[in-house]
Amino acid sequence: MRAHSPFYRDFHRGLEQHPLSALPILTKSQLMERFDDVVTDRRIRLAKAEAYLRNGGPARYLDRYVVLATSGSTGRRGVFLFNDREWIRAIAAITRPIAWATPGSPRRRPPRAALIAASAPWHYSARVGQALANRVAPALRLDAGAPLAELVDRLNEWRPEALATYPSVLRQLAAEQNAGRLAIRLRNVATSAEMLTAEVRSLVRQAWSIEIQDTYGATEYAPIASECGHGRKHLFENGAIVEVVDDRGQAVPAGEQGARILLTVLGRFTQPLIRYELSDLVRVSQEPCPCGRPYRVIEAIDGREEDILSFPARGGGTVAVHPNHFHDAFEGVAVAAWQVEQLDSGLAVRLAGADAVVTARVADSLQRVLAAQGALPVALAIERVAEMPRGASGKAPLIVARRARPADGTSGAPAAPRG
Ligand SMILES: [Zn+2]
């Protein structure tokens, strides 16, 4: 790190005299507000990096940096830069879960693969897909925003053995396979970037008799954790210091759920991330994993703090309902996709592939789950849709928190998982 970056001058002094846990937390809005001060190459300017993202241009910004952005669906859009060395490390880290999933001697021929993700060039998965397709394996890349029928046709043609995509896309593909319209023989399936529910895991078992390998990551650092052969998610602690903390920033012991995590990413010097805050709800396991890896295991990622919705409670006041209760409400309900959005007037529920009977069952199941949490009955507006709306990143969040209302009265962008 360049010691004379203005943002870090005082910070440096702090670093020498205090433990990491005493240093200030860095939020995304601070990072973006002080962007030009935080970066360690003084030629980098946020306005220029954003213009580069908008207009495209040479392969690298300043002939040197890969520039990625988050979709900006929850608050300010994050912009992240990687120099060559940092980018190679990032790509190598992404390929590591593949080795975890297929232990033993490496295969001579990489599996025929398909990646269905965002296609926007600023998006992490698009850039990673590009880098891997060119260097590692023959891969078909499809846009997660494409119509389902088109995805099915292209996959039937390509016949991949390995597939990487978002859980919301996989859920629909597993249903298509179970219905016989999709006919591919998958041996490996990897998911990331959205909440993976028990229901999607079970649909995939039914479709291909395999287990999903789920990875938890962020544009800022990926993977943060990935599953070993025992199906347990290990933190990638060799590349970052991961702190699980409560909403006051105090460390939370193993076994208890934190309100956010703090990442101190090692080996990233262009844009240092020190105690960088992500609002994910994570619990570290107290049980060691039989695989013997030294990295801590996380038991649950229950969504983000923004996904906890609050409702008027029966006894007065409000009650906070965790995302996993919504997952429970939709467990075993025969829909191709679902989304719940909180409005001032109640809940908007979108269902794809549902008939009238299923719609009634969903309404009943949601009211029961909310009542069990102590909420008063909630007004439900259930809408049947052909395809679930996807954000700029191609993802379809299961839960959309109440929109922040901008001053001009127009509605803000819906929340989506980071990425
Ligand atoms: Zn393990």
Overall description:
The chain is built from eleven helices and 20 strands. The chain is α/β, with parallel strands linked by helices. The protein has a domain at 308-388: Alpha-Beta Plaits. The strands form five sheets. It has a nine-stranded mixed beta sheet with strand order 4-3-5-6-7-8-9-14-13, sandwiched between helices. Helix 8 (167-179) runs parallel beside helix 9 and helix 10 packs antiparallel against helix 11 (356-372). It is globular, with a radius of gyration of 22 Å. The chain starts with 5 loop residues before the first helix and ends in a 19-residue tail after the last strand. Residues 228, 230, 232, 234, 289, 291, 293 line the site of zinc ion (ZN).
